[in-house]
Automatic annotation (TrEMBL):
The chain crosses the membrane at residues 31-53. Pfam families: HATPase_c, HisKA, PAS_7. This is histidine kinase. Signal peptide: none annotated. It is an enzyme of class 2 (transferase).
Length: 838
């Protein structure tokens, strides 16, 4: 057609100039006709090319369909051959038609040719099967037709032959196959079943592969894509299956395909069984794929499984396992894991240290039995008479369904708690826990607990322990005896309220029991408490509630009946003594006051006689008058001392503070003792700085203190010895000390020299009533100071009085009693040689 059109067009073009010249008016019509003719020529050429292309494509498609048809025809022929190669019957039902019977029915059941009613006779199972099998197959067929439930039965005919019956639903139909179970027939039946499965698989394979989410492809022998499923099309983002096949769009790049080819070759050679894991772009995102491709007669088929999430989980799992391994290495419990083949797959550092095993030996993945044999050879396991039997018992844990716990007693004295826990995926996990210290501690604890219980039971004092829940956990026999508690009740661990209720009948006072209950079950801060319980029989118990660790409370009772009775007696006696002392002080005060007035008169009249103002005295009278004067003065000093001490005890003596010149005060006290120093031939040494200044104190009492100290020093010094007086003052204290080098005093006497009426001559002529040093200590303490005595036999005596400068004076004692009559001031008399001053 194209050639004809071209020839006609050439002729028309050749005639065009002549026609144009002859007929100018036709020129336009000729050009238009020529344009139309050219368009037709182009259209014809394009249409011819399209026809050739479509013819080629349909020819190729026809060849492919013919090849597929040949394959299906071959499969159908083989199926028919296999179906007819065995004597069997196949019965099919659909929903509307009658059952169809196929197969070698001439010999299968009755040995007769098929007729119009043969199918009904075949399905009348009771006519050729035994009754039980006939009922079973009829019920199974009804269930198959109604619900599509498959079944497989072994039947026996009335003639003794064995028949296999298989029922299943296929493509909306119910299918029943009956065949003899001889050896040859079994093989033929298997081949036919395989053929049926293949046929059904071929019919559903395309839909199945399109339904799965994994990309699947098939290649021809040249390596080009010949078929892909819908997931493959979506993965390569193609418009359709045909577009992907025509373009030859590959899911994997060339290096990945080469890797797959190498892995396939190695797998075919038996060198590896691994599936290559590759990275590819799937639907626009990077994914990790497990790719499996295998060879067929007509080419290759492959599938790619997306394992991106699995890979992520695997990485996370590996990271978690590494963390768990590091954690297990830090545990003190030995851990060892064995796989299904009883090979060591993991152990922590504690396991290696527990058995002292070589790392190289553990890295070789020894079996559990090998490790036990090695430990036995190293004498690290307990000796067993039947080691083989014991070992089999240990390895029997691999077949157990639950964890098993045993105890291993090692030769070195350690005790191990061994837990064998089966793993879900097979194998076993051992946990070795060294409980030697725990058992020893528990044994010691139990022994200590028994010892404590026995010890408490032997105590005479009642003892009870209450737990954190307020229940009685321990009570000795004495506690039960005192409160008359039944031991059976104590064994039941009664609550503290029950115990108190039982004890209240013997000690009815409520307040002590409330304190005890608060200590045992109180929610506030638990502190130790003590109280006293008085029993109705006169017994007095001191109760102490002491909190213990972990919320427990210890209750102890002590019988103080005897001490309370003694205390009461002593209290009554002390009250009587205090009353007697008060009467004595009152008596002394009044007696001293009453003696002082007559003594003042005696001294006054004696002075008048001594001055001879009333008349002259002879020598003997003057001597008597002097004796009377000295004795009266000594008696007056004693009375004044007694009155001073009485005033101090009564709290009525107050200091008359003034600015006192220390040096002048010392000299005044020395002048009062000069006559005795001269009489006894004793040297006095004064160490008083001229710039010592003054202090705020009672000058009269300071002079009295120094006078008494000097009198004692002179009285206990021998002729020719020396007495020293020292005075020092700093910013805080004034220190006055008197030291003699006489005989000194032993320690037992030195401890009592400051007590009243304590007088010790120590073999000297010194006499006194024992009030001098007592007066000294009282006056010093009134000034807020202190007295210190240093003495030893043969070393003399050193008395130091310290007066604080910054402290103000205070009264002797508080509280003050009722005011007493005022004491008249003492009569001042001149001291003469031989006058006794103390």
């Amino acid at each position: 057609m194209g050639a004809l059109v071209l020839t006609t067009a050439s002729a028309a073009l050749a005639e065009l100039p002549e026609a144009t010249a002859a007929h100018p008016a036709r020129e336009i019509h000729s050009v238009a006709a020529l344009a139309v003719f050219g368009g037709l020529v182009v259209f014809a050429v394009i249409l011819s090319l399209l026809h050739l292309y479509e013819r080629s494509r349909w020819t190729r498609r026809e060849r492919e369909l013919a090849a597929a048809l040949d394959v299906l025809r071959g499969a159908h022929d083989r199926a028919e051959m296999l179906l007819n190669a065995e004597r069997q019957i196949i019965v099919t039902w659909d929903r509307r038609s009658e059952p169809v019977v196929e197969g070698d029915i001439s010999l299968a059941i009755h040995g007769e040719r098929p007729t119009s009613g043969y199918a009904r006779r075949v399905l009348a199972f009771g006519t050729w099967l035994i009754a039980a099998d006939a009922d079973a197959v009829e019920a199974a067929v009804e269930t198959l037709r109604a619900r599509g439930t498959s079944f497989a039965l072994s039947l026996r005919t009335q003639t003794g032959r064995n028949i296999e019956a298989h029922g299943q639903a296929v493509a909306g139909r119910a299918l029943l196959r009956l065949r003899e179970t001889s050896q040859e027939r079994c093989e033929i039946a298997d081949l036919r079943a395989t053929l049926d499965e293949t046929r059904r698989g071929l019919s559903a394979l395309s839909g199945l592969l399109d339904a799965i989410p994994q990309p699947v492809w098939r290649r021809n022998r040249e390596g080009s894509l010949s078929w892909v499923n819908a997931a493959y099309v979506a993965a390569v983002e193609a418009e359709s299956r045909e577009a992907a096949l025509d373009a030859g769009t590959e899911l994997l790049d060339r290096p990945a395909r080469e890797t797959i080819a190498r892995e396939e070759a190695a797998r075919s050679a038996g060198l590896t069984r691994s599936v290559p894991r590759l990275s590819a772009i799937v639907a626009g995102s990077r994914r990790v794929l497990d790719v499996f491709e295998t060879s067929l007669d007509t080419g290759r088929v492959g599938i790619a499984i997306d394992v991106s999430e699995l890979e992520s989980v695997r990485v996370d799992l590996q990271r978690q396992m590494n963390a768990n391994v590091r954690t297990l290495d830090q545990l003190p419990t030995a851990v060892a894991m064995f796989d299904v083949s009883q090979r060591l797959i993991f152990h922590n550092a504690a396991y290696r240290q527990l058995w002292d095993l070589d790392q190289a030996f553990l890295d070789s993945r020894p079996s559990d039995g090998e490790i036990l044999d090695h430990l036995r050879a190293e004498r690290k396991l307990e000796e067993h008479a039947d080691f083989r039997g014991w070992k089999q018992g240990v390895l029997a844990a691999y077949r157990a369904a639950e964890a098993n716990q045993t105890w291993w007693y090692l030769p070195d004295g350690r005790t191990l708690r061994v837990v064998a826990d089966p793993n879900p995926q097979g194998g076993l996990t051992y946990l070795f826990d060294d409980v030697s210290d725990h058992l020893n501690a528990e044994s010691r604890y139990n022994a200590l607990r028994r010892l404590q219980a026995e010890t408490l039971d032997t105590l005479a004092e009642p003892v009870a322990v209450f737990g954190a829940d307020g229940r009685l956990t321990l009570a000795n026999r004495a506690f039960c005896t005192v409160w008359r508690l039944d031991p059976a009740i104590v064994e039941e661990r009664p609550h503290v309220d029950t115990v108190i209720q039982a004890c209240r009948s013997l000690a009815p006072a409520e307040e002590p029991w409330l304190d005890i209950r608060d200590t045992v079950v109180g929610l506030e801060s638990r502190t130790a408490r003590s109280c006293r319980l008085e029993v109705v029989d006169g017994t007095v118990l001191d109760c102490a509630a002491q909190p213990l660790p972990e919320g427990a409370t210890l209750l102890t009772l002590i019988d103080v009946t005897a001490s309370v009775n003694v205390e009461r007696a002593l209290t009554e006696k002390n009250d009587a003594l205090e009353k007697a002392a008060q009467l004595r002080d009152t008596f002394v005060h009044h007696v001293s006051y009453e003696l002082r007035s007559p003594l003042t008169n005696i001294i006054g009249f004696t002075q008048l006689l001594g001055d001879e103002t009333v008349g002259a005295l002879n020598e003997r009278q003057r001597e008597y008058a002097d004796h009377i004067m000295r004795s009266s003065a000594a008696l007056l000093v004693i009375i004044n001392d007694i009155l001073d001490l009485a005033s101090i005890d009564a709290g009525s003596l107050e200091l008359q503070r003034e600015e006192v010149d220390v040096q002048a005060t010392v000299e005044a006290a020395v002048r009062g003792i000069e006559d005795r120093l001269a009489e006894s031939h004793i040297t006095l040494a004064l160490d008083v700085p001229e710039d010592i200044g003054s202090v705020h104190a009672d000058g009269k009492r300071v002079r009295q203190i120094l006078f008494n100290l000097l009198s004692n020093a002179v009285g206990f010094s021998d002729a020719g010895q020396r007495v020293e007086v020292h005075a020092r003052k700093d910013a805080q204290d004034l220190v006055l000390s008197v030291r003699d080098y006489g005989r000194g005093m032993p320690a037992e006497i030195a401890d009592s020299v400051f007590n009243r009426f304590e007088s010790h001559t120590l073999g000297t002529r010194h006499r006194g009533v024992g009030l001098g040093l007592s007066i000294v200590r009282s006056f010093v303490e009134l000034h807020g100071g202190r007295v210190h005595l240093e003495t030893a036999p043969g070393s003399g005596t050193h008395v130091t009085c310290t007066f604080p400068i910054s402290l103000s004076g205070r009264t002797a004692r508080e509280p003050r009693p009722e005011p007493r009559p005022p004491v008249p001031p003492p009569v001042t008399t001149p001291r003469k040689p031989g006058m006794a001053l103390h």
